[in-house]
């Protein structure tokens, strides 16, 4: 029998988790042959709601779901986990400065990093979703240096999925015709949805969509502002699409990438494309099914380079602001 995969989810009573957990337990991520053990981590005020979610998971009678642990305790929650999906965080509230937000989240991600280093399985991989996800990932990772850099990720996949759909709809083609869409940088409004390298039906997107202004005036702002547009329309932030992107992100790490495509993930920079080492930066990546690496050697035209510089500088500024949360 296949060994179960143990997966920790923080923020397990939240809205993204409510769309994610049932798909995880149904086998959408690790496949129909792999049993799963869920470690559901929350803060005390949300434990009653979490009990309700667990009751619903029970009531689905998922054959693959072997065990559930509901806890507020990080040592228990991360014990032996192969994957940690760090979703819980404190969203920005009205009047909150970015610095305050980073401080509050530092208090969450620093102990989570330590607990992962001390209790997770030796092959643990970590995906940070809770915003500001690149810098939360940086805080956790800097406090868990025992876990190798290549096993840490921050989520830019929702942005990539949004970008692919915009291109497919504008070109009037099926989604799988759209390939090699990259998202560079921070998961914030400075992110760079890359149309320069995107291909549609095997041709450059800029050839297929013969409307140069559309890319800069519509495509990029639409993808950058999509989260805000969802909140305006729905009265709540993206949840099911975010959960779907978590699933896509994990799958893109554990399965080899298609020969003619790449995926979007935030990974620890090793200096690729001049990004300072150690920053979590959204890059185009490929996986061999074990290890993820940044797609190197792309030609970066000047307008793309200028946009990458803006998002790079934002991440450098975020890192400067959380200096005291990093171990010296
Ligand atoms: P919710 O507010 O519905 O749920 C968050 C949950 O986290 C709550 O149940 C809360 O009790 C829990 N929590 C808070 N602190 C915790 C801690 N220290 N340990 C464990 N649990 C804790 O938010 P939801 O809509 O699920 O979004 C979660 C996070 O994802 C937010 O930070 C959000 O901004 C971020 N997102 C990131 C995206 C990305 O692409 N990277 C896209 C979607 C989303 O905006």
TrEMBL record:
One biological process term in Gene Ontology: tricarboxylic acid cycle
Entry-linked InterPro entries: L-lactate/malate_DH (IPR001557), Lactate/malate_DH_C (IPR022383), Lactate/malate_DH_N (IPR001236), Lactate_DH/Glyco_Ohase_4_C (IPR015955), Malate_DH_AS (IPR001252), Malate_DH_type2 (IPR010945), NAD(P)-bd_dom_sf (IPR036291)
Per the UniProt record, which EC number(s) apply here? 1.1.1.37
| Coiled-coil residue spans | none
Annotated GO MF terms: L-malate dehydrogenase (NAD+) activity
Is NAD a UniProt keyword of this protein?
yes
Q: Where is each Lactate/malate dehydrogenase N-terminal domain found?
A: 5-147
| PANTHER family assigned to the protein according to its UniProt record, in alphabetical order | MALATE DEHYDROGENASE (PTHR23382)
Checking Pfam families in the record gives: Ldh_1_C, Ldh_1_N
Q: Where does NAD(+) bind?
A: 11-17, 105, 112, 129-131
Q: Keyword NAD: yes or no?
A: yes
Domain of life of the source = Bacteria
Please identify the protein, giving its name as recorded: Malate dehydrogenase
For substrate, which residues are the binding ones?
Answer: 92, 98, 131, 162
Stated role: Catalyzes the reversible oxidation of malate to oxaloacetate.
Question: What family is this?
Answer: Belongs to the LDH/MDH superfamily. MDH type 2 family.
> Gene3D superfamilies annotated for this entry?
Lactate dehydrogenase/glycoside hydrolase, family 4, C-terminal, NAD(P)-binding Rossmann-like Domain
Keywords, alphabetical = NAD, Oxidoreductase, Tricarboxylic acid cycle
Q: Which reaction does it catalyse?
A: (S)-malate + NAD(+) = oxaloacetate + NADH + H(+)
Q: Which residues form the active site?
A: 187 (proton acceptor)
Write down the species: Acidimicrobium ferrooxidans (strain DSM 10331 / JCM 15462 / NBRC 103882 / ICP)
Per UniProt, residues of the Lactate/malate dehydrogenase C-terminal domain are 156-316
